[in-house]
Amino acid sequence: MGQRRARFRVTKRGKISIAILLTSLVSVTALSLRTNPMGVLGSSNPKSIDTNAVILGEFQGEGKIDRVNFQDSSMTSIIATYKPDKKPNAPKINTSPEIDEEFFEKALFIGDSITEGISAYGLLEDRNILAVKGLTVLKAEKEIDTIVKRQPEKIYILLGSNDLLYGMDSEKFSSEYIEFIQHIKDKLPNTKVYIQSIFPVSKDVEDKKPLLSNSRIDEFNSKLKSMAEQQEISYINVSDLLKDNSGIMNKDYTSDGIHVKYKFYSIWLDCVKRNS
């Protein structure tokens, strides 16, 4: 089944440590770890840790945490590599296309919490991702220096959901997007830039957040496509892969109507590769 990497925050309750997954992209966010006599938090060289009733992304079953690395001096944040046991009746963690890590070696994905999931699920390295929860096009402008430092050969941008929530109209959105891309081109003239379509949402999300309706998303995507043609930039339509027959977010690919499940990420990255 292979290994999966995830970030956790660790708190200690008696002899049991609780690791909380540091992402909102999965519905279940906690797992219990059986510790050695020294305790996970007290071990300077932690070994493999057996797990009880582990639920991580799409996988449920027994397994173990390989390689636990503390990320700060207080030892409250760790990165763990999860290796599930190979049980005959255990659900498969991924039946989607394999990720071509070599293809994305010098790529940079820019976006919000949806894009953040690419590295949170260990599909690509942190260096390939520049994602901030709540990121808008205007806020992304402030990340130009960071983008330049990464020196990517390819940039894939997915922005717009948060701009929609702020009530921005498509004309202003398009104008700010063009400026953002132009600034990237000025600093990185040899870098290929790709624009990705804004993902659809579920009916429940539309009802609760009318500014994030699928009709507005379609309007913004239409504007993005036209803008890409005018600017001679490649436009990648990922949203159609997520839509059901009614034109809304397919419930099989989402748990909250906005963010996508683990199993869609490899489909997404495969689409990006095929359209690059």
Can you describe this structure?
Helices cover 30% and strands 25% of the residues. Helix 5 packs parallel to helix 7. The strands form three sheets. The protein has a six-stranded antiparallel beta barrel with strand order 1-2-3-4-7-8. Strands 10-9-11-12-13 form a five-stranded parallel β-sheet, with helices on both faces. Strands 5-6 form a two-stranded antiparallel sheet. It is built from nine helices and 13 strands. It is globular. A hairpin with an 8-residue loop joins strand 2 and strand 3. It has two domains: 81 residues, no CATH class; 168 residues, 3-Layer(aba) Sandwich (Rossmann fold). With 276 residues, it is α/β, with parallel strands linked by helices. The N terminus is likely disordered.
